Amino acid sequence: MSETNTPAPEAAEGHRYTAAMAADIEARWQDVWDAEGTYEAPNPTGDLAGDPAVVARPKKFIMDMFPYPSGAGLHVGHPLGYIATDVFARHQRMSGHNVLHTLGFDAFGLPAEQYAVQTGTHPRVSTEANIENMKVQLRRLGLGHDKRRSFATIDPEYYKWTQWIFLQIYNSWYDADAKKARPVSELVAAFENGTREVPGGRAWADLTAAERADVLNGFRLAYASDAPVNWCPGLGTVLANEEVTADGRSERGNFPVFKSRLSQWNMRITAYADRLLDDLDALDWPEAIKLQQRNWIGRSEGARVDFALGDEAITVFTTRPDTLFGATYMVLAPEHPLVEKFIPAAWPEGTHDVWTGGHATPAEAVAAYRKQAASKSDVERQAEAKDKTGVFTGEYAVNPVSGAKVPVFIADYVLMGYGTGAIMAVPAHDTRDFEFARAFELPIRCVVEPTDGRGTDTAEWEDAFVSHDAKLVNSAGEGISLDGLGVVEAKAAITDWLTERGIGEGTVNFRLRDWLFSRQRYWGEPFPIVYDQDGVAHSLPESMLPLELPEVEDYSPRTFEPDDATSKPETPLSRNEAWVNVELDLGDGVKSYRRETNTMPNWAGSCWYELRYLDPNNASALVDPEIEQYWMGPREGAPHGGVDLYVGGAEHAVLHLLYARFWSKVLFDLGHVSSAEPFHKLFNQGMIQAYAYTDARGVYVPAAEVEERDGGYFYRGEPVKREHGKMGKSLKNAVTPDEICEEYGADTLRLYEMAMGPLDVSRPWDTRAVVGQYRLLQRLWRNIVDEETGEVTVVDGEPDEATLRALHKAIDGAGADMAGLRFNTAIAKITELNNALTKAGRPLERSVAERLVLLVAPLAPHIAEELWHRLGHTDSVVHQDFPVADPAYVVDETVTCVVQVKGKVKARLEVPPSISEADLEQLAVTDAGVVAALGGAEIRKVIVRAPKLVNIVI
């Protein structure tokens, strides 16, 4: 290490560890670490290749979830996960691993665009300023990131590859037989040579370019479709289902969201539903997160059944095909495309008044109900409310097993996003169907024999009878009878019967819907897609990437009155005519094209960023295969590969994690990566909360200005109420890391956040408690440095046995805790050791001092680096070996053995942990207290559980 790395002269106030000294130490060592590339992790090849001996070590790839660079900067809740991964990374590095740990920035998205709309500042300008501010704050914490690998998703060099991946997905289809993605070119070849039938039966050569595009659109993994979407007029954009709250409003802005049919880009994630489910089993993730993903994917087995309606057929998916004879009506989602095809001009004769909703014609009734349903979220529509709404379409379908005509309704409790958007209603055996049937005076037919004594006459039923373990009744028709069968046997029999007649088949259904991938925004990745004069989409060649965002005068999409459900999107990019309409040569001469004017969602850049960390400067490939294999390839215990540790909030259980898994699987199928999963081990850190205070109006007041006195809380002399809440600007209770670093130093902040409690549990912030960790560091400093002279006080010689036992127990316990992410208990063990050394009241032996510093180094790296150099070392503490405990000193010297006579404790013996049963028995029966308790009685049996229990039976 160079001469510039020697400790700096002490400040004039002396040699005591203070906030001022901490600030000097921390800034100085951060400069050294940056200058010397202390945290750079070498690749096996490429421009970041380094020391082969380091590459030969076991590797460890540690990641935090992408931060978004907010203009408000960090509060102390934000770096909780970053500090945790840093401690873990440092411990793993000291344990002999080649550690890759870095951090980039997820910088596209709505906040920067909204700021641009308000101020006229270009989103890139404000975003880059926010990134620089965040980098300063994070650097002050001493995070050991390989800064060569950092990037932002807004860098054209980065989103070039986001666009490239989109094109890989766009130019792929999912081969269900091979159970993997394949290039669309192979599908086209199969259509051309006749080995695969073209949908519709025509020859591929007879189709126009537009017709071929339509056929391929039905197969592509990225495709455009005219489908029901969540349209938010107040934001001027469509939203994914996951971005809509339970009460039907936008997560951002809290605007109403409506169902509308628009042409949008989608990702066919549903093709991977089975693999996304199955591969969860091999991931080291919290079970709660796995369960959320399983529920979101929602796999269910059942049958597809066709109900004839004139020349059309209404297809339903049901998990209970055995109850077909009990289907007395049908319900379609209001958005179902068949609804518009068969609405009659007038109500059929005999239509019940309650079915019409008071409207003169079916068309009026359907239009009115569709408008009403469009204002509700999917969650609202599926709520278990007793009041069911709907309207008769004026048409009847035919039950395929009984031949009975059943009325067709539309109702908002049926969604296009699940199954086929249509259900066969069996009111006797489904709670919602029962309530709907009662409300609309529809027949209720029992086909599953009740086991609760109510009988099969439904007239007096108060609710549905739902059972998966009962016998079928009233279920016989032409060529089929299910009467007397159990549910499982009846399902198999009816499914075979439907399949033989070509009106149904056994199938699997998923709750998962295709991923809506378009946004009507400016600040996002442009789609590398252009349209010819016939409206056919064409992908840009790789040579034209990146397609950069153009300049626009107005950054905002056109917004509308929040309740204007009939409005349509108008994107910012569409206003730049010179960019939208272009002349390009895509390989067949120069032609006129129109660019796609939607942008990708902010999720796009975070679907693959782990790969960019591996090979950040590669301009010719997504990632070097050898580098990707080294850091992320399959290995023992991780058959699908992936990052070794990924830390972030549980709020990303579905959105980001599911999307990233999908992209990884496509890239794996196409041979671009060896890892089929992006993140092998996932850990969800808890949240730092803080007290918030409200005045008499219920308005939040600045928490930092609240005084506590006489058991109450006061703001400017007025009483306020205290509550617990998430730390942040809205509750006026944010504490910045800068404040804590100024008052105590970064090492103290790091220790306090790790000591607050288990990492996966939310915990309250208490600035007054920070001083406890500050004092720990001061005691550590005093144990090695004389506060009067600044001289190191350690001595040569061997420590006594008591010191060795305390030291090695701390090494053993704290090391295991750091490896297991139990940082709070690791700090407790280090504190106990440091206190014991302090109480001894004598200088530390050098061997004890050095191991104490190494023990602290992952948690408080700045003071550890300073003390390591003051102890005479020239190499960084970062790359030293973590101390290893001597097992001989970890085991207790003696343990307490309890001796019982007739079940009562009569003696406690201090014995060696390794004592034999025979020796322990001899000690017990000869102990004076035991002999007195026996009183000369005959011993019938001695039960020995060495080394802690002897039970004597007399």
Give the structural class.
alpha+beta
Give me the CATH architecture of the domain at 299-510, please: Alpha-Beta Complex
What does the main sheet amount to?
4 strands, parallel
CATH topology of the domain at 299-510: Isoleucyl-tRNA Synthetase, domain 2
Radius of gyration: 35 Å
Strand fraction equals 15-25%
Q: Give me the count of strands.
A: 34
> Share of helix among residues?
25-40%
Write out the CATH superfamily name of the domain at 299-510. Valyl/Leucyl/Isoleucyl-tRNA synthetase, editing domain
Summarize the structure.
This protein has 954 residues and is α+β, with helices and mostly antiparallel strands. It is built from 30 helices and 34 strands. It is globular.
